[in-house]
Every structure is written in structure tokens, then in C-alpha cells.
Write a structure and sequence with these properties.
By secondary structure, the chain is an alpha/beta fold. The chain is about 40% helix and about 15% strand. The protein has a five-stranded mixed β-sheet with strand order 6-12-13-11-10. A hairpin with a 5-residue loop joins strand 1 and strand 2. The radius of gyration is 26 Å and the shape is globular. It holds the Pfam family Pyridoxal_deC. This is Pyridoxal phosphate-dependent transferase. One of its GO terms (biological process) is carboxylic acid metabolic process. InterPro entries: PyrdxlP-dep_de-COase (IPR002129), PyrdxlP-dep_Trfase (IPR015424), PyrdxlP-dep_Trfase_major (IPR015421).
């Protein structure tokens, strides 16, 4: 509404965005804090192998079992997540876009649904994927960082619009590079949302740095080839498609018994490939995997770097302003920077050590049980432990039956308050459990107990 002042100038109403934001955030906290607290309370029950039951958003009916919550009969659900089939969940959410807004009340109704039907990744039982239950700063400091980034509502593409975040990213990436003894004049980089984006960026940087003409003329007569671990991440194949190499240009290199790329096989395959294509222009990149393979966390980087210089991808100074493939980009480095400032770097050293100790502890529980076959070997190469459920310690000769058992147990674990990943192995799919420095020993004991009990209930 506009008001005409006595001087003839139209007066616009004042902005009350700060007050509205305060009101919404204050109300939002009444939903967020109980969501986090529920995960803390559920942690106390994990050692039993069963989940804490909390009230569902569903109303009581003849088709669900109810319990008393604060004196009220309500259906119960695991604190980790209330699962529904996609079509059922779609009906529960009512995702139609209204013509008239619902205001604060309508907004908080949606917030309640989002929290009520989403996976609570704060829960100790969330041991899925490589971000499963990440370190403590992923939660509290990550929450603060996300709010701060939302308030700034800026972009990390140029210094002019985000001067502070640009400098924070630069210093944070240089700090990380220093941990790998990389000299600061030739190190640094950009923050990426994950390993897939990082692999794509690495591939295009390697090509553009060594063959600058490809930036304007394309791949031309070059026949680029990418050698990577046979257990490597699928994102490398996708990156090869995106940048014109084609998926057939990705050559899988066999791995050893621990899932690491065999350096002698890498060298042999390179020689074989070069001999076969001597009459054509062939340019090579070796991609060693770190943290993206199914079983092992890191390839033998020392071995890869020991290859003759002419067989390795050369290096050069990469200017940070030229390393960003996209225009818009979140300044996720702020999260790590705030965590480092809040906890200090020494904290992360302890946290990582605790994470490896927890992985060894879980592996010890697995190897001590007569009902598991470990895939991971001690010392653990990373913060994940891989194993099969095998009643009486004997795997089925049929890999598909092993896969079916793994998938079935993993699905049933959710009702017990655990969510774990699985991956394909030579003997079928195996469990792939991700731990961290704050995973409680009781959580791991409860997980093993839950898998054992669910496995015992399988037919055959």
C-alpha cells in the first residue's frame, strides 16, 4: 500500500523483513530442536538393537498399532525415519501448489511434514553413504553455517559479490593442501558439493591445462584415455561422457585383494594401450581414487606417483579464477572454516583417530561373530567396514542369494533404527557401514545384534 504525503511524494511502507525473519526463525526452532533432541534420546537405546519409538504424524486407525505418548494414543514410528512408499508419501504430503498462500501457519505445517517424514541424519543409526553421521561439526556448526550462508544469499563465483567468502575459500583450501605437503604458491582450489563434481572438475582441469587448445577447439584429433580403478566411482565414466571422451575411453585397472588399484597392472595397461594406438594421438590421465571406491578408501598413491614421468599426468599452476566450471556456486568452504575456528585443527586429528578406532571396533565385532564374513581387513583403510551376513560363517555359493539376504536385512534394519548402505562384491552385495569419530560403541554393538537377529529370521 502506498500513501501520498502532504508534499506530494508517495511514501512506501517500511520494510519489516527483520521482524518477520525473527518470528519465523523463532517458530522454526520449536520444530528443529525437538527433531535433533529425538536423535540424542534415540542414541541411548541403540545398544539394544532396537529403535526409540516416537509418535507418528499419522492419525490412529485400525491399520496401525498405537502407543501412548504423553497420555495420547498415537501410532509409533522409529526415531530414524517413518518410511512410506513414494505414492503413499506423496498423498500424505499434499504437494499441490495453492493459489493463496497459507502464511506462517501453513509454512510450519509443511515444516512439520518435512521433518516428520524425512530421515533424521542426526540419529546414531544413520550409517548410510559416505556422509552417514558425519563428524560432530557436520551438525551444529553445519547448521550455523547454513543459516549464515542463507542470510548472505550470495555466490562464490566472483570476489566483488562475496569478498569474505572468496578469501575464506582460498585460505581453507590452501590449509587443506598444506596437510598433504603441497606448497601454497601452487595449491588451493574451490569447494565442491561432493566427489562426483570434484572428479568432473579434475578431468576438465587436467585436459585444459595440458592441452589448452581444447578449450576453444574441442578434443579434435586427441584420443584422451582415462585409467582408473576397476572399483572406481561411476562419476568418472559420466565425466568422460560430459567432456567428449566417451565412456569407452575409461579403462578399468584391476585391483588387489584389498580393493586398491594394482600399480603394475596400471603400467602394463598403459603400455598395451600405447602400443595398440601408436598411430593415433593418445593422451593419458591416471585417476587414483580416494574415498570413492566401494571397499577401500584410497589407492596406492605412492605407487602411482612412482611411475615414469612420461607416463604420468604433468602438473602446472592452476589459477583459482579459472578452476570454476559453473557460474553459480555455494561457498561451502565456510562450513569447514567455521568448524576449524570453533574446534581447532587438533580436534579433527583426535576425531579422525577415534573414527579409525571405531571402524576397527566394528570390524572386531564382525570377525568375532560366527555369522559374518568380513570383506574389510585390518588395519581398516578408511572409515567404513564391509562384510556379509553368513549364517554359521558360510557364504552361499550363489551370489544372488547373498545379495538378496543383504538387501532384505538392510530393509528390515530401518524399523530397528539403523540405516546402512550395501555395495556389489564378487560374492554378491555386502553391507557397507560408515562410521566416524562420534559413533558410539553401543551403536555398533546394537547394529551387529540387529543384523544377527534379522539374519536369523531369513528363510533358508
Amino acid at each position: 500500500m502506498h500513501v501520498m504525503a502532504s508534499n506530494g511524494i508517495t511514501e512506501e511502507p517500511p520494510l519489516n523483513r527483520a521482524d518477520e525473519a525473527q518470528e519465523l526463525l523463532t517458530t522454526l526452532l520449536t520444530h528443529i530442536i525437538p527433531f535433533i533432541r529425538t536423535a540424542d534420546q534415540d542414541a541411548l537405546t541403540k545398544h539394544t538393537g532396537h529403535a526409540l519409538s516416537i509418535p507418528s504424524l499419522l492419525p490412529p486407525s485400525s491399520t496401525n498399532t498405537t502407543s501412548k505418548f504423553n497420555g495420547e494414543e498415537r501410532p509409533g514410528r522409529p526415531a530414524l525415519v517413518e518410511q512410506h512408499a513414494p505414492k503413499d508419501l506423496e498423498k500424505l504430503l499434499g504437494l499441490e501448489v495453492p493459489e493463496k498462500g497459507g502464511g506462517k501457519e501453513g509454512l510450519m505445517g509443511v515444516v512439520e511434514q518435512v521433518l516428520g517424514y524425512s530421515v533424521n541424519t542426526w540419529d546414531q543409526g544413520f550409517l548410510d553413504k559416505l556422509y552417514g553421521g558425519l563428524m560432530r561439526w557436520r551438525g551444529q556448526i553445519g547448521l550455523v553455517s547454513e543459516l549464515l550462508l542463507a542470510v548472505l544469499n550470495t555466490n562464490a563465483h566472483v570476489y566483488a559479490v562475496s569478498p569474505v567468502l572468496t578469501l575464506i575459500e582460498r585460505h581453507t583450501t590452501i590449509h587443506l593442501a598444506s596437510l598433504f605437503s603441497l606448497p601454497s604458491p601452487h595449491s588451493g582450489g574451490i569447494s565442491q558439493p561432493g566427489g562426483s563434481a570434484s572428479n568432473s572438475t579434475a578431468l576438465v582441469l587436467a585436459r585444459n591445462t595440458l592441452y589448452p587448445s581444447t578449450k576453444t577447439s574441442g578434443n579434435g584429433s586427441h584420443r584422451f584415455t582415462l585409467f582408473t580403478s576397476a572399483h572406481g566411482h561411476y562419476s568418472l565414466e559420466k565425466a568422460a561422457q560430459m567432456f567428449g571422451l566417451g565412456s569407452s575411453a575409461v579403462i578399468p585397472v584391476p585391483v588387489d585383494g584389498e580393493g586398491r588399484m594394482r600399480v603394475e597392472e596400471l603400467e602394463r595397461q598403459h603400455r598395451h594401450h600405447a602400443a595398440q594406438n601408436a598411430r593415433r594421438t593418445n593422451d593419458v590421465q591416471f585417476s587414483a581414487c580416494e574415498g570413492l571406491a566401494a571397499v577401500v578408501g584410497c589407492d596406492d598413491l605412492t605407487g602411482v606417483l612412482s611411475l615414469p614421468q612420461q607416463q604420468r599426468l604433468g602438473g602446472g599452476r592452476i589459477r583459482p579464477r579459472r578452476t570454476n566450471p559453473q557460474c553459480g556456486r555455494r561457498a561451502d568452504s565456510l562450513k569447514l572454516f567455521l568448524a576449524l575456528r570453533y574446534y581447532g585443527s587438533a580436534h579433527f586429528s583426535t576425531l579422525i583417530a577415534n573414527g579409525y578406532a571405531n571402524a576397527e571396533y566394528l570390524l572386531g565385532l564382525v570377525t568375532a561373530s560366527p555369522h559374518f564374513v568380513a570383506v574389510t581387513k585390518s588395519p581398516v583403510p578408511c572409515l567404513q567396514v564391509c562384510f556379509y551376513y553368513a549364517r554359521d560363517g558360510t557364504l552361499d555359493e550363489d551370489a544372488e542369494r547373498n545379495s538378496a539376504a543383504t538387501e532384505s536385512i538392510a530393509g528390515r534394519l530401518v524399523q530397528r533404527g539403523f540405516m546402512v548402505d550395501y555395495a556389489q562384491g564378487e560374492n554378491g552385495k555386502f553391507f557397507r557401514v560408515v562410521v566416524n569419530g562420534n559413533t558410539r560403541r553401543g551403536t555398533l554393538e546394537g547394529l551387529v545384534k540387529a543384523i544377527t537377529e534379522e539374519g536369523a529370521g531369513l528363510e533358508g
